[in-house]
Amino acid sequence: MQVGLQDDKISGLQLLKDGPWVDVPPMGHSIVVNLGDQIEGITNGRYKSVEHRVIARTDGTRMFVAANYNLASDAVIYPAPALLEKDAEEADQVYPKFVFEDYMRRYATLKFQRKEPRFQAMKTVNSF
């Protein structure tokens, strides 16, 4: 998860939404929260991680103060049982169970690809 304080005048943050990159307009006195793949896995896809990027602007300087939070390397990620029970009528467990360190190793090789292949790749990793 990434928590950031965005510049209130110059944009630069973009999200990938249904194909094209979309500008995130600067908002004063606000905090930007980017959910990571781990939150997507824990919620069994109820909350999606956001593919994002920052672009350089020529119309001024900007500032974005970010704090990234990662799990312990031995943390085990899997859909929360309470959410699976709640969603039992709609869907099964879609996201695999994995160890965070194994995920980060796989992420390093697939970093600039779409996120779906990362989750798919974790289904083939035997972390246990």
Automatic annotation (TrEMBL):
UniProt-listed Pfam families: 2OG-FeII_Oxy (PF03171)
Entry's transmembrane regions: none
Identification of the protein by name: Fe2OG dioxygenase domain-containing protein
Annotated ranges, domain Fe2OG dioxygenase: 1-73
SUPFAM superfamilies to which the protein is assigned, alphabetical: Clavaminate synthase-like
Gene3D superfamilies the UniProt entry points to: B-lactam Antibiotic, Isopenicillin N Synthase, Chain
Stored InterPro entries: IPNS-like_FE2OG_OXY, IPNS-like_sf, Oxoglu/Fe-dep_dioxygenase_dom, Plant_2OG-oxidoreductases
Metal-binding found in the keyword field: yes
Lineage: Eukaryota, Viridiplantae, Streptophyta, Embryophyta, Tracheophyta
UniProt keyword annotation of Metal-binding present: yes
GO molecular function ontology, one term from the record: metal ion binding
Keywords: Iron, Metal-binding, Vitamin C
Protein species of origin: Flemingia macrophylla
